[in-house]
Amino acid sequence: MENVPDIWLLLSFAMHLAGAAVCGVAIVWVFKRGDRERVDRAPLLGALAATAGWCVVHAALGPTASLTAAVETGRNLTWIYLIFRLFANDGRHQSMKPIRPVVYALCFVELLQLALLAIAASYALTADLQLLVLQVMAMFRVLVAVGSLVLLHNLYVGAAQPVRQVLRWTTAALAALWAFDLNVYTVAYLGQTYPYELLAMRGLVVALAAVPLAIGATSGAASMRLRPSRTVAFQTLSLLVIGAYLVLMIGIAQSLTLLGGNVGRLAQVGFTFAASVVAILWLPSPRLRGWLRVTAVKHLFQHRYDYRSEWLRFTQTIGRSDDADQSLQERAIKAMADITDSPSGLLFLRDDRGALELAARWRWKEIEVPAGSIPGGLTKLLEDRTFIIDADDVRAGRDQHGEMTFVPQWLLEHSKAWAIVPLLHFDRLTGIIVLARPPEPRSLDWEDFDLLRVVGQQLASYLAEQSVQQTLMDAARFDEFNRRIAFVMHDVKNLASQLSLLSRNAERHADNPAFRADMLVTLRKSAEKLNTLIARLNRYGASGSDQRAHVQLAEIADRTAARFAGVHNVAVINRDAATVLADAENLEQALVHLVQNSVDASAADSPVYLNVTADAKIARIELVDSGQGMSPEFIRNGLFTPFVSSKANGFGIGAFEARELVRAMGGNLDVDSREGLGTRFSITFPVPEHESETPEIATSPAKVA
């Protein structure tokens, strides 16, 4: 013991005292809570007591004391007897007679340790004799450990399945104890000295083994299972991979020293440097983490997902954002993408016509999403069938529910597109989320479909709730706006009445004919303008226009361009003959709103173009500028939303009013924009089937006296 470092003596003392304490606790546990019907209950209590006593003696006298070795022999005999009594759990100790000779032989070899201790005390006076006794004692310990492990193997493998469930905790603990002893005494036999580092660790091994021994003695041991969390399993597997890599790297580096001389040293240093660089670049990579996660889930768990942790993470992502500028739409994509480890995603929401428009994107800026990207037919299909589309199946030509007709080609051409998840709210499709392929490629399975379907329904409810809240907020702001306009209308109407009265009085009392004539003209025009303004304010937001008639779109375009003469270069580049049914005044007003927005977004020397085209069915006015452009998110959430404006002092109703006016006349307003490139507005109307078609006439809902 004089050559043993003090640190190992201290560790050996502490660990063996801990082992004795844990064995004592295990004895109390088995005595109070253990299954009293088990035939191995008394042998287990005896084995735990003998092991606790051995730990105390080992801590007090050290590993090389004769009393320590003698007590260890008694401990081993109790372990062997416990193994024999474990066979009685299914009655095999009566039928398997070959077991008894093996048990007797192991006990006899273990008892020889006492004889060797006596010989060592009396006759091993020289170093050579002491070494011989050590090797013989170590060899006998190795034989006993190997024989006990063979018995444990036959015990567990030969047991029926229900009995295995009862035995697994106890046999696992005993196997760990005997396997560690086998390593200790094998090293001692080969090294011709005791490995004091391993001897110090025996107390810790006993403490760890006492826990499953106590668990195995309870009646509920058969139903107890070790269920590590996915995080623990993933981290453990990661540590094993890193540890294996480091061991391999060290082994190769050490073997290179065999080259000898400076060459061997240079090769060792060069390999260590290269291996370290590879480790820094490869071990933290997302691909390796994805592979480890998939491997752990595939081989260690019955189900792919830990539903509790996934749901907690989902609610945390939706409820709180680390990025203050991250919208609910972006958080919705992230919440679903985190479930499948997808690195990015797109959110498409349903518009008023049933088509799906890009509403937000999360970490997927490189994909180009064209305008009118997903047709309304896919909306109807997903509402009817409520399934998740596997993009790889569509690419391979496997048409499950007819989705091949509706999935756009631009999406299939992008290899990262992986899954299309519908967002259903009360059997109505709110939108879809397109998930990118995870770093570790895999196929979608039934667990993915079930979980993503439920998450999609939950996200649809969140998005629908946000839409309702936004609608209520807009309604409240419109109500406030209408109240303010009512006061304005009242004042303007009074002013118009006063001007009309002034005009009539001037006709009667003016003295100067020339002055009187000019004043009358001026006042009459002012009154007409005010009455026109009142009429327009009265019908603001109405569902239909005042009057629809045959209108030449080219004339509307020319008049609009003329209004901006001297202010900005607005040019009409094409004037096809296009006649539609519309209200000329409202159509011009809508076009003026759009042209004004384009002028504000364009440089002073950048012209705005108007283009009038027509075919047999559709007539169109296109407005094109080379201004700042707009993002898909702003087009979806801000352009046609009242009171949302990109201008510092804008009121945010110009584009909204233009769209409502066009829709009220039976037309459509579409927009296609690219940030930094420009914007294209397109107003379309159906061409009347007959030029003599009678237009619809509607009187103004309010008349001004």
UniProtKB/TrEMBL annotation:
Residue ranges occupied by any Histidine kinase domain in the UniProt entry: 487-689
Signal peptide bounds: none
GO molecular function, one term: protein histidine kinase activity
Classification via InterPro entries: GAF, GAF-like_dom_sf, HATPase_C_sf, HATPase_dom, His_kinase_dom, Sig_transdc_His_kin-like_C, XrtA/PrsK
Origin superkingdom: Bacteria
EC number of the protein: 2.7.13.3
Keywords carried by this UniProt record: Kinase, Membrane, Phosphoprotein, Transferase, Transmembrane, Transmembrane helix
Record keyword Heme present: no
Reaction it catalyzes: ATP + protein L-histidine = ADP + protein N-phospho-L-histidine
Transmembrane segments: 6-31, 102-125, 131-157, 169-191, 203-224, 236-259
Keyword hit for GTP-binding: no
NCBIfam families reported for this sequence: PEP_his_kin (TIGR02916)
The name this protein goes by in its record: histidine kinase
Source species of the chain: Parerythrobacter lacustris
Gene from which this protein is expressed: prsK
